[in-house]
Design goal:
The protein is an alpha/beta fold. Helix 3 packs across helix 7, helix 5 packs antiparallel against helix 7 and helix 9 packs antiparallel against helix 10.
């Protein structure tokens, strides 16, 4: 809860720009961070006292523009345009500044007091990207601060600016009134302020795009890669699954012996051991190993940029079914766990396409529906129980 005397500071920015990391660093909270669009789906608040002044920071959902195409973008737009915030901090990604500037320019036109926080400066330095923050501030007409939120560099300078509201008032001489103008202005400012001393990372991305999204190579590479992931998941899970099942069912036998030894009623141990424990043992032994292999591999493909290219390749195919190419990613996640795949459908902006993805994702066979590799049968246990009880009955 924030007090009426607190100054409201809104944090806005593109998804994956480190906005929630900045929020955690300045508030000391531990809001979950993730590397997917739409991770923050609601407004999150946190308080911070700095130089005897109280601030309430509001972490808004990530968006690419103030034109509401999704519920997350609508929530961010309404909060910014309502004037509820005393100051809006626009968190930009230093590794792709041009994309972030589109939203920054829109917010500068809509809010009275704005600070631009260029985050991920350390990542930009690794890629040979240099940003002239002074020139950027002059072109935007608002203060600009370079930060690396994970190491908390530059955050003190950002907080110092909050104590000088007269310096964060937008002073732009030109006004932009169309979406195309925002894009062109962002491109022009980016060219003036960004210097790339190492084009190697760009060239590698271009080469990867030509191969992974090429007309002749896209689908073969995509199918082979996904088939390899599924093969490693299914084959590699056999061995740990068999070991876990063997250990858990050995414990089941010992529990059964114990209940029989203490003359426990059959209805009790049949429910607890042959019912609850056996189901739990099957779920753990069958589902845990494949998920422990599949999701790390899936995350690796996402980190290297393979999965976004898969969505791009399949977008035309899904569009013919009135669906979205992003659904390919949620369906792939469904092979690991349908629940995770359905939750992942929130990355789809259109409510209609999102609903289609949620409904059809149930038809993807997750690893919980696959037959256990070891096929250990436990049907003999009730007969064993009866045999062990016969001497006591005589």
């Amino acid at each position: 809860m924030n007090n009426d005397s607190d100054r409201i500071i809104a944090l806005a920015g593109n998804p994956n720009s480190g906005k929630s990391t900045v929020f955690n660093a300045v508030t000391g909270l531990r809001q979950h961070t993730g590397n997917w669009a739409g991770k923050t789906v609601s407004v999150v608040r946190g308080r911070r006292t700095y130089n005897k002044k109280d601030y309430t920071f509001v972490d808004l959902p990530g968006c690419y523009s103030l034109s509401s195409h999704s519920a997350e973008e609508a929530a961010a737009r309404e909060f910014i345009c309502s004037g509820s915030a005393d100051t809006v901090i626009v968190v930009c990604d230093a590794t792709c500044l041009e994309r972030s500037l589109n939203l920054a320019l829109q917010i500068i036109e809509s809010a009275e007091r704005v600070i631009v926080c260029v985050n991920l400066m350390d990542e930009a330095h690794k890629k040979g990207i240099t940003i002239n923050l002074a020139t950027l501030s002059d072109r935007l007409g608002v203060p600009v601060v370079g930060t690396s939120a994970r190491s908390k560099k530059g955050l003190s300078q950002l907080l110092d600016l909050l104590e000088q509201p007269e310096q964060v008032t937008a002073k732009r001489s030109e006004h932009i009134d169309s979406a195309s103008s925002f894009i062109k202005t962002a491109e022009r400012i980016s060219k003036e302020c960004v210097t790339v001393t190492n084009d190697g990372y760009k060239n590698s991305d271009i080469r990867a795009d030509r191969i992974i999204t090429g007309k002749r190579t896209a689908f073969p590479i995509m199918l082979l890669t996904l088939f390899g992931v599924f093969w490693l998941t299914i084959t590699g899970a056999n061995y740990p699954s068999e070991l876990i099942a063997g250990g858990l069912f050995w414990i089941e036998d010992r529990l059964l012996d114990f209940f029989i030894w203490v003359n426990c009623p059959a209805i009790v141990y049949e429910v607890l051991v042959l019912g609850v424990y056996r189901v739990l043992a099957w779920v753990v032994s069958v589902m845990l190993p494949p998920m422990a292999i599949f999701f790390p591999l899936f995350t690796l493909l996402e980190d290297i940029g393979f999965l976004p290219r898969v969505a791009f390749n399949l977008d035309k195919c899904f569009k013919k079914c009135s669906a979205c190419g992003k659904q390919a990613l949620t369906m792939c996640m469904g092979f690991g766990c349908n629940a995770a795949g359905i939750i992942g459908c929130r990355i789809i902006n259109s409510p209609r396409e999102r609903l289609i993805a949620i409904i059809t994702n149930n038809f993807v066979p997750c690893n919980g529906r696959f037959a256990p590799p070891h096929q250990k049968q436990q049907s003999y246990l009730p007969e064993l129980t009866k045999a062990k009880q016969m001497p006591s009955l005589s």
